[in-house]
């Protein structure tokens, strides 16, 4: 793939800036937003605030050890003050970095048309959109892993700058693994590629020179602060001891690696829930978060009209992209034994997006090939677009409740404990947190609840206000409705 080799530096800079702006604008549309409560986002927020108030410290949970994410959030808060905007800026910037860098590298590798196609596919992929608009490690891990993969690809042939590119590949995959261990799925791919490509020991040493320092510094610091040389491993291994509603029994105290018993206890996140071993694979093709990318990949590859010509660069690349997908599945499902949900398989999804972009831009020899590519592209864009469009705004209750509290400065609002925890951070930022309580409302007090047919005794409650969010699609996606009511008896 050398179509984009003639692109000059100014053209590549223009492509990078254009992709960055387009991605950033798209991430402002229907963002996932901060959830709060018992969510992972809340854990990362708490870890960052603890760094700000108490200084550097070794965390006690696996959330607090995701240092690339936590320290990025600390830096954002220190630069822009603690705010929802500064919180959301972190994943969005990593999403912009991922899209911009990948578009440039696709342009260099396969040409502008393939790069534009990949950009379109990426922005219409719900799992990527959700990760870039939600405070979590997924987009950080994927950005670092993608940069590492492309730098490895650049260095594979040796030549000028190959050692520096390979050292960069090692550095960024180390940062990806520090963010979340699922990125380790690329390491066996690199090992096989190095062996089959006969890249030589100098490039291997360059990779190690970039790979080891961040891991040694991070783990050495944790050892110094905790007295445990394997502190990260021990903390990460204890994550199933923390209650999870997605784990049968809530907690699990057995081995967390290579444990089929643990794997069978996780509840499946996708639409297909038959058997834990095969569900993730089938959900690759069925989960709306993946926008039918894996289905489009299979459709285009196995169709005789769009199958890449034997010996072509695209045909030679397909086994490697498939190997990345399989390695990602094995690492998540078998080795780390994590809950099989779309956000853990983003490396596989990224490989699928590259494969589909390349297959969509193959030579259109026949009208049947053009039609097949149009169908595949339409499936991805329609499925992905609708999933993003219909995804709920997780700050919708806060957007309704907090303005009402500001407009009624004497009101004190009672709310159920789960929702109270979810809106705590926005309420603190709005200065009304002390006027929201989890306690049940007594006579004369005001509560808020979701609008449902009333089941209370007649005359027990009197409606004070009805808060309604915006309509999106009449009769399809109904607006959020909350009832403010006063207890009268």
UniProtKB/TrEMBL annotation:
GO terms for biological process: lipopolysaccharide biosynthetic process. This is Glycosyltransferase RgtA/B/C/D-like domain-containing protein. It comes from the Bacteria. One of its GO terms (molecular function) is pentosyltransferase activity. It comes from Sphingomonas aracearum. It is a multi-pass membrane protein. It is found in: Cell membrane. Its main location: membrane. One of its GO terms (cellular component) is plasma membrane. The chain crosses the membrane at residues 6-23, 110-128, 199-217, 281-302, 314-338, 344-363, 375-392. Keywords: Cell membrane, Glycosyltransferase, Membrane, Transferase, Transmembrane, Transmembrane helix. InterPro entries: LipidA_mod_glycosyltrf_83.
